[in-house]
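Priority: low. Protein: Glycosyltransferase family 1 protein. Input follows.
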Amino acid sequence: MSGIRARGGDEGDSRTIRVASVPSSHVYVKHLSSPLSNDGVTRLPDPDPDDHRRSAVSRWWPPVMLDPAWVREHAAEFDVFHLQFGFDARTPEELAELVAALRETGKPFVYTVHDLRNPHHLAREAHDAQLDVLIPAADALITLTPGAAAEIERRWGRTALVLPHPHVVDIDTMAAVQARRVGSPESDGGFRVGVHVKSLRASMDPLPVIRAVATAVAEIPGGVLQVDGHTDVLTPSGARHDEALSAYLQEASGRGELELRIHDFFTDAELWEYLASLDASVLPYRFGTHSGWLEACRDLGTAVIAPDCGYYSEQGAVIGYHNDEDGLDVSSLHTAVHVAARTASPPPEPIPERRRQREMISAAHLDLYRGLVG
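Result:
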């Protein structure tokens, strides 16, 4: 991607760039736009997977825009094709056909590399094969951290523009949480750390992590370990029921070693309230690359205890421990929990800084798009 730099849009160029974004309605993509003004970019709405003539509004998967036929049919409606994620179910051959359709219609192809290791795949080979198509074919690459950019350079010989992850929590909620924390009395000295097993992504092996955190929390006066998980994993009738994990959590809860909360997926509002209620959130990942969960914690002032796999520590300040596919270093996680307990919670990311960051990200995208189109 040589020759393309984040320098802000050319004020003398009033063109609006129309972007076929895959997806468009995801919060990350929404926060690539300026929060203050028209930033010169229009992103097409996600087509409804059941009726391509309608926008999907919040439902975007499976992405219709990945179909080469859609590209050819709608080529006159967009200037740039920008892939973020959502191609998990596409074969390398199908992705090559997408690239061919973009070449045929003369549309520049931008790819933001969020994941260098897919957190939903137990083995890496399938995702690697997809990346072997997308990264060499892209006219421009973006990624979120210098470490990810260095890996892209090392593996494919391509240069990626590094742009930080924008805020995840909406500005109004960030402001409300920050005001609440400023206006609240100091805590009673307790320490609440959360581990959320979600629906057990392949990147998670949460049982060793939870055991280690429980041991550490038991040594902290006023310490509480809260474990959340979805009903599909932690109830016997769930489609992804994990009997061993469920049994341990029920038994540990009965012994008073942790608080267990089983529920369906949080809404955004419920998720923000949950994260804001914690002093620290443990990311129980053994592989991965970047994390929107981490960014939400930064927005809300919740400390993050993150593994040293991937590039989480480059996204923002974290308390690190060692965990990867070879196993968990229990001692390092034990230490991390104690460090979090005796360290003041990090202040939330300042809202003016998050706004400024979005303006910079928006300008960098506009500059890149115009460089490709013009």
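Residues 1-10, 53-58 have pLDDT under 50 and may be disordered. Residues 171-342 form a domain with the Rossmann fold fold (CATH 3.40.50.2000).
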